[in-house]
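Input/output pair, single chain:
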Amino acid sequence: MAGPAPFVDMGKKAKDLLTKDYNFDQKFTLTMLSSTGMGLTATGLKKDQNFFGDINTVYKSGNTTVDVKVDTYSNVSTKLTVNDVWPCSKAALSFRIPDHKSGKLDVQYLHPHAAIDSSIGLNPTPLLELSATIGSKELSLGGEVGFDTASASCTKYTAGIGLNKPDFSVALLLTDKGQALKASYIHSVNPFTCVAAEMTHRFSTYENNFSIGSSHAVDPFTVVKTRFSDNGKVAMLCQREWRPKSLITVSAEYDPKAVNASPKMGLALALKP
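Output:
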């Protein structure tokens, strides 16, 4: 639908270029799909001397998707999503076991000139969240608010404006309950190269933080990304599609302030037979 994107996606393109796929641990992902609509994903992550893993099963049938995840701590997360409950909408019911207070209902409605997302916790004192954007696919204005009924207080409120063009995207967000201003920008220099920047200004401390980065497609199967932050950290990523839909990603980060620590290195392998 050619309408405004949900508020959560405002500034997402720049954030993805600067953060997505960077991994400084060892990660392995295996995804298997079947023609019956069943999908199985197994993930393992080694962080320092600890190992974390989960198995995620997804089943699709018509407008309904069932997603069940089990991790190494025996936590079970379940999500049931139904599309087109009414035209241009979807609803999702999620909960975790054994956390009996984790139930949540999410409803999304997309319109050619608006996008609305709402969430309510399924417990006696629920957390309520609502976000909305209005405008068009190119120019949108929106905001989000969260309310905790247990303490009768706002947990968050954010406002923003986004501009999207074929070769660039800009977003300006007032975050942290009006205490910070975040600006992001991404620009496609050519079909192979993109650059992005994100800056945050905190009104209370007058502190500025920024990150700049780039993404370059060396060939149809290889992408190289770089990132530099105001704290001096420099990061680089190389991702190679060595077979269809199977990726190997090598990441590295150097912190000049950590003189006694070696640069961080990470390896991620994603297989999709």
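DSSP finds one helix and 19 strands in the chain. Residues 12-19 form the longest helix (8 residues).
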